[in-house]
Amino acid sequence: MFKPEDLSEVAVSRSPQSETHQEAGPCKCQRRLVLVMLASGLLLFITVAGLLCAFFFFVYPKITEARIVREKYAAHLLAEHDVNRTIKWFNIAGLGSSYVGSGFRFENQELHSTKDGMYYVYAKLKVICSIVNKCNNSSTVKLELMRCTESTECARILNMEVKMPQDAESAFDQSSTLIYLGAKSWLRAKIDHPAHDSIILDYEHVYFGAFLIGS
Questions:
Q1: How large a percentage of the chain has pLDDT more than 70?
Q2: For the chain, what is the domain count?
Q3: Phi/psi zone of residue 2: left (φ > 0), alpha (ψ -120 to 50 degrees), beta?
Q4: Alpha-carbon dihedral of residues 180, 184, 185, 190, nearest 10 degrees?
Q5: Both 52 and 105 in a single domain?
Q6: 51 with 127, same domain?
Q7: Which of 213, 210, 214, 215 is nearest to 101 (CA)?
Q8: Together in a domain, 127 and 180
């Protein structure tokens, strides 16, 4: 005959199994969560690695090539005066901000282009009053930039005029434009600076230059 004591034994004997099943559930969820996190991390790593490879193999070479071309076809010339007070343009490789890229030739005070294309051309003229209140009636200082070719005469492309305002310590003018330069064309800049003891050029801010935009 079945006795009540047997029920207690059965109940007691089944309790550890139910606890084991309850503990197994959270363990499986935790393992799945770890696997999902590992898979996500691996996918993120593969994505980042792919983007870096694409940048270094496809984008970076083009950026480097564009920078080399830009530096090659670029020039920036500063003004100076010699012992005879004659104003000239100069560049010294590796010294200061004046430079001429290998895509240009600078000779006889002329900047020659060696590649056909559209160029951004710019210039600036700045003067300083060295004696206060002594520059009001000074003459206008001019900077003229011209484009010259073998077949035609030089044509003016930029023109700057600076006249010292009353009681001012300095004054400047600057201009720029886009022009087409052929391989057999060049730029020539000229400064008209009437003699005046109180008006001097700010040579660090008297310049002209050009760089290639597209060919």
A1: 74
A2: 2
A3: beta
A4: 160
A5: no
A6: no
A7: 210
A8: yes
pTM value surpassing 0.85: no
What's 167's domain CATH number?
Answer: 2.60.120.40
CA distance 30 to 25: 9
Give the whole-angstrom CA distance, residue 16 versus residue 32.
25
- Structural domain boundaries, residue 104: 75-214
In sequence order, the 6+-apart residues with CB closer than 8 A to the CB of 70 are 211, 212
CA angle centred on 189, ends 202 and 193, rounded to 5°: 45
Tens digits of per-residue pLDDT, 7-45?
444 444 444 554 445 555 567 777 778 788 888 888 888
Residues 59 and 119 in one domain: no
Same domain as 117, residue 170: yes
| 79/202 Cα distance (integer angstroms) | 9
* Distance (Å) of CA 176 to CA 52, 101, 191, 212: 39, 19, 16, 14
